[in-house]
Amino acid sequence: MDANTSADVVAEVSAAALRDHGWSKDQIEVGSTQALDLAGCRFYRVSNRARAGQQPADYAVLPDGSLVSGTQAGGANGAEAVLRSCGQNAPAEWWAQVVSRFAAVGGVMVDENAPSAIRRIRKSGVSSYAPTLQPNGNTKVLTFYSNDYERSTTYRVTATLDAAGKLSVDKTALTAKAEAAH
Fold it and tell me: What are the helix (H) ranges across 41-148?
């Protein structure tokens, strides 16, 4: 992909969304998610104007110009590519945003704007909902909470990026019994 101009990038993201979702060109809107841009990775979110309630599609352009989709086959492959390319010195919150958008976790990362999820987390005995990123040798372990509003379920998500760059993601529905031990 020629990532030299913003117009080229938007055109490539639009084409990917058309291909990936079968949406028509006049239905899509591509927006930059600049708050996530880091270490040469640029992020975009595509929504379908005709389907207001549908989850937007996430895309990232890596420093080498390749395009990564949040709907890539293989589940965590998109997140792996983004984390390996741009996540070396990134904070835990950035990692959680990438994993929640590109690893098919379900729902959205819990932050200060999710009071019902925060109450559910605290009710389970956990005092902090903030993402944590712990090194374990050459492996990095991310823990965060994701909330699926449609199912009214909050999940504890653990994502592990091993030394070989392979990402594994586990999620557990929050229950007082399961979370009280954490």
Answer: 77-86, 92-102, 115-123
